[in-house]
Amino acid sequence: MEGHVTGFGSPEWARTHPAATSTAPAVLAILRAGATCVGRTVMDEMAYSINGENIHYGTPTNPCAPDRVPGGSSSGSAVAVGAGLVDFSLGTDTGGSVRVPASYCGIFGFRPSHDVISTSGVIPLAQSFDTVGWFARDPVLLKRVGSVILQLPNLESARPTQLIIAEDCFRLSTIPGNQVVDGLAKSVEKLFGGHVVKHASIGDYVKDKVPSLKSFISEGNAEQEYNIPSLAALSSAMRLLQRYEFKINHGEWVETVKPDLGPGIAECIREALEATDEKINVCRNVNNELRAALSALLGDYGVLAIPTVHGLPPTLQTPATTLAVFRPRAFSLLSIAGVSGFCQVSIPLGKYDNLPVSVSLLAKHGSDGFLLNLVETLYDTLNEQVGFHTI
User: Of 72, 89, 172, 288, whose CB neighbour count within 10 A is largest?
Assistant: First the structure.
């Protein structure tokens, strides 16, 4: 924003960079449509985490669960909406930085199709995945913000031709997936007819249709024992390309300034600085193959349903060893939209075990308006059918 230093979650970054001389187009669009900016929020250091903890500025308090992480990297943006401090907020999502905090804070979060919203004026993390997303507490405002930021005056209204429930992904979840799946199926059946609901194993489909993943699967990565092998491989490909692009963008600054990085962040950034261009072309092939495969599966008006995350929000200051298992499982789900470039919305479903839970819907690249409309149409019925206690 013009006149403000963009801090990137890091005091050292803020100290070594001047105030912006212009405002990002995504922010300008919102302001010109009548929004008022009431604050700028805390985020994960250098956007490099999905936890939302910041050792320098403090961790924004999760309004649904104060002893749990708020999710990140757009932690402050999600907390401000969840706590009722603002009507909506903007954030960025590369690996999951809008979807995860939306899920953990019990609100709606929208990651748009890759490249449909200008990222001019956004500090890049990894351009192959960076998007500008947003948060809201209800689907009406979520869609209203989307119509402005996506520059879609008349959002496309269409009935879904199919809603594919990714059964293998719901089996990964530590939350009773059957309750979510049954409620989702009943809601869609009630509104659009039972023929729309279908079930699939996305892991098997991805393994068959994305041949470039083979080199990642064959590595026998230890994290795959907790996971669906093809989606673990997808996550590996995404994170490899993300590390490489982070190094190209910020490696020189990190090496020169040597910032004091928080726990967890320091290790991730050290890994990124060691990245090479080996397999980078394979990663880009994976991106293209997955987009083509999922486009063929869903068609113009198909929707894929998955858990946003596989479990409840971790407690604050969870040991790194625990997160080492948690993170790969989370990224295996988050990488489906990340690698394909599809749009994804995280929808709050109330609380299970007194902690917020959610479900996600994905639609093909460019179908953002359709997905926003669908959420608005579906939400009340879904809320009635799922049966978790309302937040």
Answer: 72
Local structure of 362: helix, strand or coil: strand
Q: How far apart are CA 75 and CA 59, in angstroms?
A: 8
* pLDDT of 157: 78
- Burial readout 15-24 (b: 16 or more C-beta within 10 A, e: otherwise): eeeeeeeebb
SS3 385: helix
- What whole-number distance in Å separates Cα of residue 217 and Cα of residue 320? 24
Segments of 124-254 assigned E as strands: 131-136, 162-166, 197-200
Residue type present at position 244 = Y
Closest-CA residue to 112 (of 90, 85, 84): 90
For residue 237, the tally of other CB atoms under 10 A from its CB is 27
Single-letter code of the amino acid located at 23: T
| Residue in 108, 165, 121 with CA at minimum distance from that of residue 30 | 121
Report helix angle 202-209 to 280-298, nearest 10.
Answer: 120
Q: Does 358 sit behind a cis peptide bond, omega within 30 degrees of 0 on the bond before it?
A: no
Three-state DSSP class for residue 360: strand
Of 315, 303, 309, residue with least CA distance to 358: 309
- Find out whether 347 and 183 touch, Cβ atoms under 8 Å: no
The residues pairing with 345 across neighbouring beta strands, listed in sequence order, are 110, 361
Q: What is the pLDDT of residue 227?
A: 84
Query: pLDDT, tens digit, for every residue of 56-91?
Result: 999 999 999 999 999 999 999 999 999 999 999 999
**pTM of the prediction?**
0.96
Q: How far apart are CA 54 and CA 44, in angstroms?
A: 6
pLDDT per residue as tens digits for the range 8-65:
999 999 999 999 999 999 999 999 999 999 999 999 999 999 999 999 999 999 999 9
The CA dihedral of 48, 54, 60, 65, to the nearest 10 degrees, is: 80
DSSP code string of 95-122: SSTTHHHHHHHTSEEEEPPTTSS--TTS
The backbone torsions φ and ψ at residue 272, rounded to the nearest 5 degrees and listed phi first, read -65, -40
Site of tokens 């639609």: 363
Helix (H) or strand (E) holding 355: strand 355-363
For residue 161, the 8-state DSSP code is S
CB 206 within 8 A of CB 213: yes
